[in-house]
Specification:
4 strands; about 150 residues; alpha+beta
């Protein structure tokens, strides 16, 4: 009978001790500052490779193959309802396709700095927030129809 009574007292002491320990642990855990889930700073993202047709003399002469990298503020990027990559690709395509000064057979003379700046400004304007900090050109080449056929 004494064994049964001692076992009951021991079970009560363990239960009370565990309850106090858990409540103390939860209270101290709540007092700690919340951990940030994301690092703040700048994010680099690549766009998909885009092919822009170059039309001259009534037919497609070849394609400009381009890939861009853009830097964006991570905090603002997370708050956007849509990812900016689609807007970057769209603006780059529009600028390349609509540029009357672009000599696609001699790309060495093309002003890539102005092109990148224009894309950045237009995307920020369309998104109505200064999300893009810089647009970088990773790849910018012309591929003629003859080269594609080979």
């Amino acid at each position: 009978m004494i064994k049964l009574l001692m076992t009951g007292i021991w079970a009560c002491v363990v239960t009370v001790g565990a309850s106090l320990g858990i409540s103390y642990w939860q209270e101290s855990r709540a007092a700690l500052p919340a951990k940030q889930e994301y690092l703040e700073g700048v994010v680099y993202e690549k766009t998909k490779v885009m092919n822009v047709p170059m039309i001259a003399e009534g037919s497609v002469q070849g394609y400009i193959v381009a890939q861009l990298v853009f830097t964006a503020d991570a905090k603002i990027l997370r708050q956007l309802p849509v990812p900016p990559e689609a807007f970057v690709v769209d603006e780059a395509f529009r600028n390349i396709y609509g540029d009357q000064k672009l000599d696609f057979k001699n790309l060495a003379r093309y002003d890539l700095a102005r092109f990148a700046q224009t894309v950045k400004e237009q995307v920020n304007k369309r998104l109505q927030v200064e999300v893009l900090q810089e647009v970088l050109v990773q790849d910018f080449n012309y591929v003629s129809k003859e080269q594609i056929r080979r």
